[in-house]
């Protein structure tokens, strides 16, 4: 972050990316709560659904907090704002001169950027906007390539692309101080990832999950349905040690058919470890192994700081577990390949919650996706557990009739024997059987065509 001196009463402007709006509020509020505990002279005005959020803070910690989140583009020192350019002018002329002059000296270089939200301005109009700021006492030299100071005029034209106003709804001017984590999403795009599969989770959503799970340096994070390890990649970026399991031998060993268009078989070294190596976080990789999530192989200790996962929904990959309905009387030899049977979604979720209750440390978080059939959705469908508190439940729409919900839970108590019978005394703890028909509903009659289209583009984050 560019250095500032001890100038008082600074207001900061945080420019947030305008996507996945539903997901950012829980993260902001959690982080705010944490930050508020640290600095009592802080207040904050937040327009959660607008691309620009004004964050008026007395301490730079709040700005740092925002910049650590995946959806923050940049932070500015806010010098002025208003509904019109004339209001902006008045506001800028009232801004304390001693706060401005250190960045406008004769021997300095600067550049002014014009950023518009929900409208594209012609080059000539941008220049006009910059020229109109001639009432500001800039004395330095313009340098487009490597300026010492960067300023930004932000014009907000609302959020409706079908109804773009002629004049902006609101205008801000400020001095750029730092960029956020947005670059991570571009640099971690699955398009350029070494090892991918049909259901690799896109980078943006992986970072959202990581933020919801409060992943931090030296945490131990586990993904029981690890697939190609997209969630491990995101967590390792925040300094967590990562491990995972998957029932699929080929996925864990990076073998079998490739998911890339022009490649038949996976190449040498196409595996999860190589993905982390690609992003320079191989040292955070513990291991992954073939294992069935319905029969966890872990000792019953609370070791994971977070469990982050995207269970199978039965659309692009089957929901299966090892085992058979028939009696297996023959002993297994070494070449035995276990038969598998259907793993119902309701069982997947109740196993996942149970596992998390036993293996998360106290205060640790479980973050996972719950697919739902929208016409039937109600909050009672979200699986509960007596040891886990529901923190947030955010929707990502997949089609007119289906969506998936990002569920975040926090461990609040150690499991006791009676907890396994909680569903008998309180129906809220019984698995919701309606999840089991998700696949049929997804591909159901009328919606078949549109489900096919969604399947091509949406499911599992692609
Ligand atoms: C939606 S994918 C996860 C994708 C992963 N997040 C990624 O980025 O590649 C679900 C994964 O669960 C695995 N799976 C299915 N049934 C399982 C089970 N019983 N135990 C463990 N893994 C299972 C599948 O093989 C698949 O890789």
TrEMBL record:
Catalytic reaction(s) noted: guanosine(10) in tRNA + S-adenosyl-L-methionine = N(2)-methylguanosine(10) in tRNA + S-adenosyl-L-homocysteine + H(+)
Species whose genome carries this gene: Sphaeramia orbicularis
UniProt keyword terms in alphabetical order: Cytoplasm, Membrane, Methyltransferase, RNA-binding, S-adenosyl-L-methionine, Transferase, Transmembrane, Transmembrane helix, tRNA processing, tRNA-binding
Gene Ontology BP annotations: methylation; tRNA processing
Residues covered by the tRNA (guanine(10)-N(2))-methyltransferase TRMT11 N-terminal domain: 11-182
Protein name per UniProt: tRNA (guanine(10)-N(2))-methyltransferase TRMT11
Family: Belongs to the class I-like SAM-binding methyltransferase superfamily. TRM11 methyltransferase family.
GO CC annotation: cytoplasm; tRNA methyltransferase complex
Phylogenetic lineage: Eukaryota, Metazoa, Chordata, Craniata, Vertebrata
Major localization class: cytoplasm
All residue ranges annotated as the Ribosomal RNA large subunit methyltransferase K/L-like methyltransferase domain in the record: 192-331
The protein's assembly and partners: Part of the heterodimeric TRMT11-TRM112 methyltransferase complex; this complex forms an active tRNA methyltransferase, where TRMT112 acts as an activator of the catalytic subunit TRMT11.
Gene3D superfamilies: Vaccinia Virus protein VP39
Location in the cell: Cytoplasm
Chain segments annotated as transmembrane: 28-46, 53-71
GO molecular function, one term: tRNA binding
Function, in words: Catalytic subunit of the TRMT11-TRM112 methyltransferase complex, that specifically mediates the S-adenosyl-L-methionine-dependent N(2)-methylation of guanosine nucleotide at position 10 (m2G10) in tRNAs. This is one of the major tRNA (guanine-N(2))-methyltransferases.
InterPro entries: DNA_methylase_N6_adenine_CS, RlmKL-like_Mtase, SAM-dependent_MTases_sf, TRMT11, TRMT11_N
Record EC number: 2.1.1.214
């Amino acid at each position: 972050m560019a250095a500032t001196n001890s100038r008082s009463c600074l207001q900061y402007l945080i420019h947030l990316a305008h996507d996945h709006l539903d997901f950012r509020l829980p993260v902001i509020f959690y982080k705010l709560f944490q930050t508020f505990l640290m600095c009592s002279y802080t207040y904050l005005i937040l327009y959660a659904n607008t691309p620009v959020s004004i964050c008026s803070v007395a301490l730079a910690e709040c700005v740092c907090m925002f910049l650590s989140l995946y959806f923050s583009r940049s932070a500015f020192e806010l010098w002025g704002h208003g509904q019109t350019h004339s209001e902006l002018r008045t506001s800028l002329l009232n801004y304390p001169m001693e706060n401005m002059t250190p960045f406008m000296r004769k021997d300095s270089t600067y550049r002014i950027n014009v950023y518009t939200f929900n409208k594209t301005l012609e080059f000539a109009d941008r220049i006009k906007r910059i020229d109109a700021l001639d009432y500001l006492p800039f004395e330095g030299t313009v340098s487009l390539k490597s300026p010492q100071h960067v300023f930004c005029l932000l014009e907000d034209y609302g959020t409706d692309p079908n109804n773009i106003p002629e004049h902006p709804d609101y205008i801000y001017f400020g001095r750029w101080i730092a960029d956020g984590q947005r670059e991570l999403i571009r640099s971690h795009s699955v398009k350029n990832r070494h090892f991918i599969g049909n259901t690799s989770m896109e980078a943006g959503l992986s970072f959202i999950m990581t933020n919801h799970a409060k992943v931090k340096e030296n945490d131990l994070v586990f993904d029981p349905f690890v697939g190609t390890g997209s969630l491990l990649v995101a967590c390792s970026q925040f300094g967590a040690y990562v491990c995972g399991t998957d029932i699929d031998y080929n996925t864990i060993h990076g073998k079998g058919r490739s998911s890339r268009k022009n490649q038949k078989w996976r190449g040498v070294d196409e595996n999860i470890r190589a993905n982390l190596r690609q992003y320079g976080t191989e040292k955070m990789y513990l291991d992954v192994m073939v294992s069935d999530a319905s029969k966890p192989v872990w000792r019953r200790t609370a070791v994971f700081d977070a469990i982050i996962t995207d269970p199978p929904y039965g659309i692009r990959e089957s929901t299966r577990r090892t085992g058979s309905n028939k009696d297996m009387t023959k002993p297994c030899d070494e070449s035995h390949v276990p038969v598998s049977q259907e793993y119902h979604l309701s069982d997947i979720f109740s196993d996942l919650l149970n596992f998390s209750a036993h293996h998360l440390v106290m205060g640790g978080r479980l973050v996972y996706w719950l697919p739902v059939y929208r016409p039937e959705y109600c909050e009672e469908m979200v699986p509960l557990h007596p040891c886990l508190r529901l923190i947030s439940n955010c929707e990502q729409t997949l089609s007119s009739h289906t969506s998936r919900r990002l569920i975040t839970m926090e461990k609040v108590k150690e499991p006791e024997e009676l907890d396994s019978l909680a569903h008998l005394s309180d129906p809220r703890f019984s698995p919701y059987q309606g999840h089991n028909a998700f696949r049929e509903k997804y591909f159901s009659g009328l919606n078949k065509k549109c489900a096919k289209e969604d399947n091509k583009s949406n499911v599992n984050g692609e």
